[in-house]
Design a protein that fits this description.
heterodimer; A: 658 residues; Metallo-beta-lactamase, Chain A; Rossmann fold; TATA-Binding Protein; 32 strands; 23% strand; elongated; B: 600 residues; alpha/beta; 4 domains; 30 strands; IntS9-like_C (chain A); Metallo-B-lactamas (chain A)
């Protein structure tokens, strides 16, 4: 059993598990932090961005000035942004049988895998994961495609040139494998390979392995996965939360008794308390708006935004902000808001019971009805007519490299009245802001990451008691910036096995048993015998049938009746099949009782001699000698088959068969 | 011999008060708990005293499963759980859990407030009953206990309707509830995988019908409605608040829009708005088209259909009214019917099945003079039309589902005896599957054969499988092992391992036989002759002549000795262990016959 680690990003995992005869990809995360090295894509021509100076080497050589631009001491690639894909060379991806998706953030690399590696398998995901994942992909494609960029820089990727570049470009890994965004056509084709599953649904793979998604509590439809056979169990925990937000709570009990638990997707901000961050978010938002400034919230179109809107729904009236417009701008804003309302079955209990009334589960329905929240596909069109300031704008992309957010950064960046509040934890906010420097607008960092922290992990592990834990190497040491915080790492016994990108781990499994079915006719013919109190034995001789990875035991075929007399048999016909083995024997033979039995069966003239290790029973008349020792019996006789068989059966009476 | 027992308490050769008891591998499950619309006395509910005479239902039943929210499937639930007394789990899907209490309350109001029945369940009882409900997702495997598991499949029919698989170990039963096999304007078609249950319990409402295409029926319906309103008549469509109503509303709404019609369409009050709301919130349960387009346009927001007010019934001019309930047995639909029945310009369209005893059933069977309460006779002059829009599978659909699931046997419920008989024959002849149709209170017992799952040690299995791959393995090979049974843990291991695990030593039983041969040659030569003789006969065995002069056949040892007294006689000592019994015994008898004459 092996684990191939294709991604080094702990919250955007992509691992391949070889389990029994199946090859299972666990998640398909796309590392988008690579885009931070690129210049933002402005929706509206930005003189500032287009006038940035080209970068030249220390010696003044400016041959890269078309590809690289400098902004406030940082160097950016002036090209279509590119993403860092999971490793595609470590294992032949066309051999992957199935892909299990845990949540919509962890499927963004799916089109690269399903469309370009010869993949012919099936992808499994829950319905909300697929629907919202589709929205995220649609938004991404839309953001990139609506700002066509003629230039695609490649010179800087040359290894010899990359060495000469300043950090972080110099240290960027695997740049040669970075790829541009996929197209909508590829997205649709990839999504058509997904089969929808429900929580606790048992899915059989080739009769050998069963996989089951479990609620993970992190996002709508997010799941952990159990991969098991009858005797082995792997739990895949990815992006789980124990906080009560909108999704159904995490199912912890089903993770118990795992041989191996693969743990990914913990909180990226282990020191921040999400509740506190939401409070800070609200108060900073109120402060800015009261002072006449605008608030910009770079965000994904689904997920935490639902919780933020719910908080604001309760907060704005009490804070006297009910007249401040909330704008949600995304090509998929409307879909996201609508979809959130129809997945009642995937929501927490409170929200579920609202649907029974029937009322929409999320209060943003009311915000929309009362015109407090308005949504637009982009800044073009209706939005420009409705736009009033001061206001709050939720828009993407959180990397600040593409999407409508770029426009608002350019528009509001120069005034210190305005505030940008970072709530998504996926990108370093300082790096995100770098191409906008110098910046007058206030920046507040309120990362809200509801995924498990290390205290919760250690409680969880105590609770579910896996034999072994496997996790990304980042979790086995304190964060580099807080190397003294020994509490910010996984602490378990035996120590967690760690992996890094492009590594192959052999999982510590000892497979000892396999399921087999005993057919009823055979079961009826078995004769169990109690050996010790509570333990019975039966010897089994049966025919083994194996089909589709399932094993069956059937009764042995009846031996054909001897057809004596009809045909002359050749000598060889009677040769018994030596593979018809007799059972093993165990026990010992008490000499006195044995002799009594012999007498009872008509043997006379019996003599018993003691030897060093046991006894010798002599049947003088029959010229037969029986050596009896603790663990063996030896019958030595003339070639009188009748006699031998009689003696054999008497001996067997004292022994147990196995 | 293990067996599965099925007893319908309701819906046995009948439509109404569906309630079926299933015993499988020691577990007792009740499927549905419905009421009968044709009765107003005790017979309206199933006879729960059948389950247990003196004991708590909770002790006897492991769980109750409700397939969908129609009252003939859940109408007796509060009576059963709160008045008879049952505290165990009740499983149903989320939409059913949401809508069921509303219909129950509606039913209660008609029974108590309108008909003045006493000793009926109360609103509080409905609430208490619903607290015992556990909601299930589609395809989720729900562990009722360690052994009993259930799984819901999509059934179409109405919002949230499900078929259920009930499984214990390798035995399973599938209960369809009501279902339809063709997608309609708002719901998808039922679907089940090839789960090969021991028994499939299916409804058979339309056991003998093969319905024409849906499109034709829809066109027909629209034409009749259109013609009636064109000539100034009123159209009454009795429906149940949820289900068919939404489908017909979508149909009329799109038609009105296309034809630009202005004639008002009303939907009888109360449930309407709310009902449509449920459909909006449970979009994932509707058909693919609605799911795909709901963001742009939610099909359940109707522009042309407005809420009905009692006073509207007397308005002059044409109109279309959807009114509840669907079988004209009580409530608003019956009131409107009485008002409009006398005018031949008007029309009533019955879009679904009506059980015996209801006004709906009477007018559909041609009765035109109806005796109402107080000896009043109502003459029906309005046109009466029947259109099968109720979403049940027809004969073709039922056969299709049986084909999908591949059960060992089929049991029919929820249909009329005569029609069932026809379908039973069809299933037995065409699909070669045994088919049953018990009446209420009659028990069907099906023996099942159970294979026993055990764990086989991987070492033993691999050894066998490796040998099974050898080319000479033409005849089936025998696997030998020892089954260790400890509590409920069954493991099959090699005999050696079994001995080791139990801390027992092997006892070796060995035989040595003296075979006397007439041979004057030296021992070594005798041995050589024995070797060539055996070698020529035992072609499939490993025969060896060892340097020390002895001969082995597999693990059987043969030594030639010369007893001193007679030089013409040699004694062969043949020695084998009990494990080689067959071969050893064979060899001695073979050698006893002597050796072939050596060519001299």
């Amino acid at each position: 059993m092996k684990l191939y680690c294709l991604s080094g990003h702990p919250t955007l995992p992509c691992n391949v598990l070889k389990f029994k005869s199946t090859t299972i990809m666990l998640d398909c995360g796309l590392d988008m932090t690579s885009t931070l090295n690129f210049l933002p894509l402005p929706l509206v021509q930005s003189p500032r961005l287009s006038n940035l100076p080209g970068w030249s080497l220390k010696d003044g050589n400016a041959f890269l000035d078309k590809e690289l631009k400098e902004c406030s001491g940082h160097v950016f690639v002036d090209s279509v942004p590119e993403f860092c894909l999971p490793e595609t060379e470590l294992i032949d991806l066309s051999t992957v049988d199935v892909i299990l998706i845990s949540n919509y953030h962890c499927m963004m690399a799916l089109p690269y895998i399903t469309e370009h590696t010869g993949f012919t398998g099936t992808v499994y995901a829950t319905e909300p994961t697929v629907q919202i994942g589709r929205l995220l992909m649609e938004e991404l494609v839309n953001f990139i495609e609506r700002v066509p960029k003629a230039q695609s820089a490649s010179l800087w990727k040359n290894k010899d040139i990359q060495r000469l570049l300043p950090s972080p470009l110099k240290d960027a890994v695997e740049v040669s494998t970075w790829r541009r965004c996929y197209t909508m056509q590829e997205v649709n084709s990839a999504l058509s390979k997904i089969q929808l599953v429900g929580y606790s649904q048992k899915i059989e793979l080739f009769g050998a392995v069963q996989v089951t998604p479990l609620s993970s509590g992190y996002a709508l439809g997010s799941s952990n996965w159990i991969i098991q056979s009858h005797y082995e169990k792997v739990s895949y925990v990815s992006g789980s939360s124990l906080l009560t937000t909108h999704p159904q709570p995490m199912d912890q009990a089903s993770l118990k008794n795992s041989d191996v638990l693969v743990l990914t997707g913990l909180t990226q901000i282990p020191t921040a308390n999400p509740d506190g961050m939401v409070g800070e978010f609200c108060s900073n938002l109120a402060l800015t708006v009261r002072n006449g400034g605008n608030v910009l919230v770079p965000c994904y179109p689904s997920g935490v935004i639902y919780d933020l809107l719910e908080c604001l729904y309760q907060y704005i009236d009490s804070a006297g902000l009910s007249s401040v417009p909330l704008y949600f701008i995304s090509p998929v804003a409307n879909s996201s808001l609508e979809f959130s309302q129809i997945f009642a079955e995937w929501l927490c209990h409170n929200k579920q019971s609202k649907v029974y009334l029937p009322e929409p589960p999320f209060p943003h329905a009311e915000l929309i009805q009362t015109n407090k929240l308005k949504h637009y596909p982009s800044i073009h069109g209706d939005f420009s007519n409705d736009f009033r300031q001061p206001c709050v704008v939720f828009t993407g992309h959180p990397s600040l490299r593409f999407g409508d957010v770029v426009h608002f950064m350019e528009l509001w960046g120069k005034s210190s009245l305005n505030t940008v509040i970072f709530t998504e934890p996926d990108f370093s906010y300082l790096e995100a802001l770098a191409p906008y420097q110098p910046l007058a607008m206030k920046c507040i960092y309120c990362p809200i990451d509801t995924r498990l922290n290390f205290i919760q992990v250690s409680k969880l592990l105590k609770e579910v008691q896996p034999l072994h834990v496997v996790c990304p190497e980042q979790y086995t040491q304190p964060p580099p910036a807080q190397s003294h915080r020994m509490d910010l790492m996984i602490d378990c016994q035996p120590p967690a096995m760690s992996y890094r990108r492009a590594e192959v781990l052999a999982l510590p499994f000892k497979r000892r048993y396999e399921k087999i079915e005993i057919m009823p006719e055979l079961a009826d013919s078995l004769v169990p015998m109690e050996i010790k109190p509570g333990i019975s034995l039966a010897t089994v001789s049966a025919v083994l049938h194996t089909k589709d990875n399932k094993h069956l035991l059937q009764p042995p075929p009846r031996s054909a009746q001897p057809t004596s007399g009809k045909k002359r048999k050749r000598v060889g016909d009677d040769v018994p099949d030596c593979k018809v083995l007799k059972p093993l024997l165990s026990g010992s033979i008490p000499v006195e009782q044995f002799v009594q039995t012999l007498e009872k069966h008509g043997f006379s003239d019996i003599k018993v001699e003691d030897t060093a290790k046991g006894h010798i029973v002599l049947l003088q008349e029959a010229e037969t000698l029986i050596q009896i020792e603790e663990d063996s019996t030896h019958i030595i006789c003339d070639n009188d088959e009748m006699l031998r068989v009689r003696l054999r059966d008497l001996v067997l009476k004292f022994l147990q068969k196995f | 011999m293990p067996e599965i027992r099925v007893t319908p308490l309701g819906a046995g050769q009948d439509v109404g008060r569906s309630c079926i008891l299933v015993s499988i591998a020691g577990k007792n499950v009740m499927l549905d708990c419905g009421m009968h619309m044709g009765f107003n006395d005790d017979r309206r509910f199933p006879d729960f005293s059948y389950i247990t005479q003196n004991g708590r239902l909770t002790d006897f039943l492991d769980c109750v499963i409700i397939s969908h929210f129609h009252l003939d499937h859940c109408g007796a639930l509060p009576y059963f759980s709160e008045m008879v007394g049952y505290d165990g789990p009740i499983y149903m899907t989320h939409p059913t859990q949401a809508i069921c209490p509303i219909l129950l309350e509606d039913y209660r109001k008609i029974a108590v407030d309108k008909k003045g029945e006493a000793n009926f369940f109360t609103s509080q009882m409905i609430k208490d009953c619903m607290k015992k409900v556990v909601a299930v997702h589609l395809h989720q495997t729900v562990q009722v206990d360690d052994e009993l598991e259930i799984k819901a499949y999509y059934a179409g029919h109405v919002l949230g309707a499900a078929m259920f698989q009930i499984k214990v170990g390798s035995e399973s039963v599938v209960y369809t509830g009501d279902y339809n096999m063709t997608p309609d304007r708002h719901l998808g078609a039922a679907w089940i995988d090839k789960c090969r249950p021991n028994l499939l319990i299916t409804e058979s409402t339309y056991a003998t019908t093969i319905r024409d295409s849906k499109r034709c029926r829809e066109r027909d319906f629209l034409k009749k409605v259109h013609e009636t309103v064109e000539r100034g008549g009123k159209v009454l469509i009795p429906v149940f608040a949820l289900g068919r109503a939404q489908e017909l509303c979508i149909l009329l709404e799109t038609f009105w829009e296309r034809m630009n019609l202005k004639v008002p369409i009303y939907f009888s009050t109360g449930l309407t708005e709310k009902a449509n709301h449920y459909y909006k919130l449970f979009i994932p349960w509707t058909n693919q088209k609605i799911r795909k387009t709901f963001v742009q346009r939610n099909m359940f927001e109707f522009k042309h259909i407005k809420a009905f007010d009692r006073a509207f019934a007397d308005n002059p001019g044409p109109m279309v009214v959807f009114a509840t309930p669907g079988m004209l047995h009580a409530g608003q639909s019956l009131q409107i019917f009485r008002k409009w029945a006398g005018n031949e310009k008007n029309m009533v369209i019955m879009p679904g099945y009506c059980v015996q005893g209801t006004v709906g059933h009477k007018i559909l069977s041609g009765q035109r003079k109806l005796e109402m309460e107080g000896r009043q006779v109502l003459e029906v002059k309005m046109q009466v039309e029947y259109m099968s829009f109720s979403a049940h599978a027809d004969a073709k659909g039922i056969m299709q589902l049986v084909g999908q699931a591949e059960p060992e046997s089929v049991l029919l419920v929820h249909g009329e005896a005569k029609k069932m008989e026809f379908l039973k024959q069809k299933i037995e002849q065409e699909l070669r599957v045994s088919c049953y149709m018990p009446a209420n209170g009659e028990t069907v017992t099906l023996p099942t054969s159970l294979s026993i799952p055990v764990g086989i040690s991987l070492g033993l299995l691999k050894r066998e499988m490796a040998q099974g791959l050898l080319p000479e393995a033409k005849k089936p090979r025998l696997l030998h092992g020892t089954l260790i049974m400890k509590d409920s843990n069954f493991r099959l291991v090699s005999s050696e391992q079994a001995l080791k695990e139990l801390g027992l030593a092997e006892h070796q039983l060995r035989f040595t036989c003296r075979v006397h041969l007439h041979d004057t040659r030296k021992e070594q030569e005798t041995a050589l002759r024995v070797y060539s003789h055996l070698k020529s006969i035992l072609k499939d065995h490993y025969v060896q002549h060892l340097p020390d002069g002895s001969v082995t056949v597999e693990s059987i040892l043969i030594q030639a000795t010369a007893p001193s007294e007679d030089p013409g006689t040699k004694v062969l000592l043949v020695s084998w262990t009990y494990q080689d019994e067959e071969l050893g015994s064979f060899l001695t008898s073979l050698l006893k016959k002597g050796l072939p004459q050596a060519p001299s």
